[in-house]
Amino acid sequence: MRTAIYGAGSLGTVLGAYLTRAGIECDLISRNKAHVTALQQKGAHIVGKVDFTVPVKALLPEQMQGTYDLIFLLTKQLENRKVATFLRSYLAKDGLLVTMQNGLPESELAQVLGEQRVAGCAIGWGATLQSSGVAELTSEPEALAFSLGMLNPGREERLQAVASMLGVMGPVTIEENFIGARWSKLLINASFSGTATVLGCTFGEVARDRQARRIAQLILKECFDTGHRLGIAFEPVQGKNLEKLFDYQGRVKQKLSYLLIPLAMKKHASLKPSMLQDIEKGKKCEVESINGILSKEGKRAGIATPVNDLVVQLIGKIEAKQADPGWNNREAFKSFLS
Fold this sequence. Notes:
This protein is α/β, with parallel strands linked by helices.
């Protein structure tokens, strides 16, 4: 399959490096000219939890030619409809676009490309772009897992081929209940990415700080309650049943859930959320596609999500330069922590 990774930033560079190292040809495509030049001249250097360099084929979008059987999409969701429209002519008629984005992006992409040409993939690991051509893997190598699927069945053979390709990097699960897998990823992103962005820290620091951990736990609960009201069955992540571990009704289960959070985040302790990375670079982040989606779905379900809503509000203020990420933002959650 002729394959492209569109939006080869931190995650896409790591993915492209692993695929290329395994002998799978793929084009790494990015609008970042300095990054593309570095990849072309020096290869992709992956650091952090691993350390290797591999020559890769890197392109700017205007250098794309022909059509692809498979496109992995890793851009931010801020311009999804525009990006999908651009990629439409580069996706083969029987091709498949696999979005590895956060949130719930499949429906909007399918409106442009068609339901049978869009699949989704929830990934359970993180990365940071250290410099042009250099990406840091911030999750442990054993956490390199993928949950692959479609909102509607019909491309099982192609999904198997994609799973075989991603399998060179880590375990791949083809989810029959893909929307449940998406909600499980949203659960983690809204709770830990949102909290860590507001506080200007990593997932591990959220888990270690008592107040930050409680903020994340409250958002977990809001997401569970919203999903359950909408009939969502949350899928396990890396074999772990999130509902059994972290959902609660009474005080005893709440305390157990709270105590388990640091253990659950151990493999991802170094992960800095992409929203925080964007803010630090002066870019607009995709809070509306992560925490904003939870707020929107909460309203649709009739479930209050006040802690998550506050995260959205605070990140909006940070983007508007009316506040900064930092531990002092815990004060804003004081009424929820008593």
